[in-house]
Design goal:
Number of strands: 14
Mean pLDDT: 75
Distance between the termini: 36 Å
Structural class: mainly beta
Low-confidence stretches: 1-41, 55-70
Number of helices: 2
Largest sheet: 14 strands, antiparallel
Radius of gyration: 18 Å
Strand content: over 45%
Shape: globular
Helix content: 10-25%
């Protein structure tokens, strides 16, 4: 059986890209500054708990990242209903406060429910949160990943739906659906050779009620050899205008360009 490795969270960078861009009017700047603070916080929070979730694999409970360092902190209490026995439930308990990589403090619990091994078509992984917070930012909601049939080229693919809210300087919601195709590295033990192609769309509701739509208009390519999204385009449709985020032509770098109101700006992804 081909070893199914970690399906990394791959779409977080889209949030920070849009969050860093502000409107040109003073009143728009005020709203967008608040939204930026929330959306960047959402990015940090999602990436943080995603690292723990995505490193639960079929071959072992706690895996390592591409540099060989364990992601899950020693202060996390992990309870597994039984590896290889499905349905399977895994609970990550951070208690009242657990410091993880980067000095981030998590608290509360994450519940991971698997109907089957994620190498099996139709298997689902549902992630929910109980009193969960990152650096006192409260997160609620669910993330559901479903194993789909392989593509016509034989590449593994997954569907994911994300319905999350974060409470920090108001509350921001994120609703998104995406399709993830594992184009390279699936059948190797190392994770640093993984490459994913992502399509999808969704929307964010900002604290002031403004709805911002996001569409991956050109498929994103997330390359773990490089460590960044190396190509693809996201179109962001907000009330104060449309932004086009372009991640490039495949060259490995930490930059993307943003087109807004006829002006192009370069942003640094990390």
């Amino acid at each position: 059986m081909i070893r199914t490795k970690n399906l990394y969270q791959t779409f977080i960078i889209a949030i920070i890209s849009s969050a860093l861009l502000l409107g040109c009017k003073k009143e728009k700047n005020t709203d967008d500054t608040l939204a930026a603070s929330n959306e960047v916080s959402f990015m940090v929070a999602e990436k943080s708990f995603s690292d723990d979730i995505e490193h639960i694999t079929k071959s072992g409970l706690i895996d390592t990242n591409c540099s060989g360092e364990g992601f899950i902190a020693s202060c996390v209490t992990v309870t597994d209903s039984g590896e290889g026995v499905y349905p399977r439930t895994i609970v990550l308990d951070y208690g009242d406060g657990c410091e993880g990589p980067g000095g981030n403090i998590r608290s509360g619990t994450i519940l991971i429910s698997l109907t089957n091994d994620m190498s099996q078509v139709g298997a689902t992984r549902t992630v929910t949160f109980q009193d969960f917070a990152l650096n006192n930012k409260q997160l609620v909601g669910s993330r559901i990943t479903t194993r789909l049939e392989n593509t016509a080229n034989g590449e593994p693919q997954f569907a994911r739906s994300i319905d999350m809210t974060i409470s920090y300087i108001g509350t921001i919601e994120r609703h998104f659906t995406e399709n993830i195709v594992w184009t390279s590295g699936y059948d190797t033990e190392a994770c640093g050779d993984n490459v994913f192609t992502i399509t999808g769309s969704g929307y964010v509701i900002r604290p002031n009620g403004v709805v911002v739509n996001r569409t991956i208009s050109v498929p994103l390519v997330r390359d773990f050899i490089c460590g960044y999204t190396v190509s693809g385009v996201i179109t962001i449709d907000a009330p104060n205008g449309i932004r086009i985020i372009d991640f490039g032509n495949g060259t490995c770098d930490d930059e993307a360009t943003v087109l807004f109101n006829g002006n192009t700006t370069t942003i640094v992804l990390h």
